[in-house]
Amino acid sequence: MATALKIIGAVLVLLIVTIGLAVTIVPRFLDRIYYRGPASDHFDGERFRNPDGDADTMRLPAGGGRAGFFWRQLTGSDGRPAWPKSVAVTQARPPARVDGDRMLVTWVGHATVLIQTGGLNILTDPVWSDRAGPLGFGPKRVTAPGIRFEDLPRIDLVLVSHNHYDHLDQATLQRLWQRDRPQIVTSLGNDSVIGQVGARATALDWGQAATLTASGLTVTPVAPRCGESPWCRGDRAQIIVTRNHHWGSRWFTDRNRALWSSFVIRLPGEGGNIFFAGDTGFGDGHWPREAAGYGPIRFAMIPIGAFRFVPGQMSSGSHIGPAEAALIHQRLGAAHSMAIHWGTFRLSYEGYDTPPEMLAEAMRCTGGTGFAAAGIGESFEVPSYAAPAPTRPLTREAMLRCMDRPAVNALR
After folding, report:
1. pLDDT at position 22
2. Distance in angstroms (rounded) separating the CA atoms of residues 194 and 181
3. Count of beta carbons in the 10 Å neighbourhood of residue 276
């Protein structure tokens, strides 16, 4: 009996020591230094920050303790509406190339979009994995990718907005790199994460640009704006890394070691630019106009999902909802926008079809057109830029008042 008690006591002591060591050692082990560089208005020498404030991105979207929040999300015990276990998709077989000013767009799912124009094949935040998380865990996709990887044409350019697992998928990036050796453009620090699987990326700060040529990328320290001219002419594609409002982490303790961003792709000719919002909250709401300063937006990709973490919530600090997405479309002055970041991975509280239904209501509030949801696997043509008709300029507060109607509140 005494021997058994001694063994139990020894095991308990060992367990306490192990837990104590884990508490002190594991967080440091999970932390990573992805980037070293000079301090700026959004980098303090160690971690990045939003210059318009981080209080909203630091809060849990549903309030309460962090452990309880993640447990409820993991177990689905937060009362959220049920999602379908699977959604049928007719997968596209896009052409090898689309030449000239013609633009063909295919939504692969979540934030992954294939844009084909001017002989270029462009992919945003490519994710072909079944789960969005580390070590095979995380939310499981409810739809197959809108294009089979085997049917994906040769990719020339990949944009990676930040290092969250539902946007930076190392397995997919490794496959793309081994097959196509595309040019990969991302924001500061994420090249370190991408490099872990042998792929090479060009990492840029907000306001920097890279010009795509036949021989690769040429980096421009500061991207020129259009000034008074309505067009920014050139004979090559230029990728500009632009501000949005988010955060980054792979392991919690490495929070904000790498930067997050949106992107403008300035295309040759007068057809208009492409804008990819990445993953973003609303923040000060000025960053869409900053992106529009690089020239007229022909086509924009704007997130509308993962915005509701408690009943009735219209957005979180890290994610815009459909109401704010409509305002971003308006402030971009975009001719055409497509809704992304919904209907693929169940990340939050809203029902499966809620985001596109609410987006239609939000667009009624602005009186605008040109922003709607597409189906996964759907390919569509985007016309050349034409200035959109004037809309009702709304503040965020006015938009939320417009959306505060029984018909909208009934949407889950």
Report:
1. 45
2. 13
3. 26
The whole-number pLDDT of residue 66 equals 54
Label the pairing between strands 336-340 and 297-303. Answer: parallel
Measured CA distances, 58 to 30, 246, 395 (Å): 19, 10, 24
The amino acid at 205: D
Query: What token pair was written down for 106?
Result: 């295919």
Residue matched to tokens 């004037």: 390
Q: Which residues contact 392 (CB under 8 A, 6 or more apart)?
A: 365, 366, 367
Write out the H or E segment, with its range, that includes residue 241.
strand 237-242
Per-residue confidence (pLDDT) for residue 95, from 0 to 100: 98
Structure tokens, 313: 């919530």
Structure token pair of residue 148: 């089979």
The CA distance from 255 to 250, in Å, is: 8
Give me 5's structure tokens. 């008690």
The per-residue pLDDT for 231 is: 36
β-bridge pairing 262-266 and 237-242 = antiparallel
Q: If we measure between CA atoms, which residue out of 146, 298, 176, 162 comes closest to residue 237?
A: 298
Chain centroid to CA 335:
21
Please report where in the chains the tokens 């106009």 appear, as a residue: 289
Continuous segment of H or E residues that includes residue 329? helix 322-332
DSSP codes joined into one string, 349-367: SS-TTHHHHHHHHHHHHHT
What is the phi-psi region of residue 53: left when phi exceeds 0, alpha when psi lies from -120 to 50, beta otherwise?
A: left
The ranges of the chain with pLDDT < 50 are 13, 17, 19-26, 228-233
Q: Report helix, strand or coil for 381.
A: strand
- Taking only the tens place, the pLDDT of each residue in 181-210 is 999 999 999 999 999 999 999 999 999 999
Identity of the residue numbered 161: S
Which of 132, 176, 90 minimizes the C-alpha distance to 348? 132
Q: How far apart are CA 368 and CA 371, in angstroms?
A: 8
DSSP character at residue 332: H
Name the pairing type of β-strands 157-160 and 183-187: parallel
